[in-house]
């Protein structure tokens, strides 16, 4: 098994973070895995310590700012999100609707460059 470079690892993690933002923005994800798992998946790839590992050129400066904004919002609001697998139970939950809106906004920033290659370092 060959060793994965830091750059390739970061590219893969960038894709996982994009997928996590997708899950927040996708109502079907709530039905499939529930709000707790969506939130926990974010924390699998992002916390204050990991943010220092993510850097340019794999992540653009705008993407890093997007990660910080979304992470800070999640840190302030996750406790106000009910545990559910039913999207209708989230109607009127301002904490969840704020996370969904932010995830869509921040995801759009990542989509400007699209997904990273997971097998070869981007050039």
The total beta strand count reads 0
Q: How many DSSP helices?
A: 5
Helical percentage = 55-70%
Low-confidence stretches: none
Task: Estimate the strand proportion.
Answer: under 5%
Which structural class is indicated by helix and strand composition?
mainly alpha
In N-to-C order, the SSE pattern is HHHHH
Q: Outline, from the CA principal axes?
A: elongated
Summed over residues and divided by their number, the pLDDT gives a mean of 95
| Major β-sheet profile | none
Oligomer: single chain
The radius of gyration computed from the alpha-carbon positions, rounded to a whole number of angstroms, is: 15 Å
Structure description:
- The longest helix is centred in the first third of the chain and has 20 residues.
- This protein is mainly alpha-helical and 123 residues long.
- The chain starts with 5 loop residues before the first helix and ends in a 12-residue tail after the last helix.
- α1 runs antiparallel to α2, α1 packs across α5 and α4 packs antiparallel against α5.
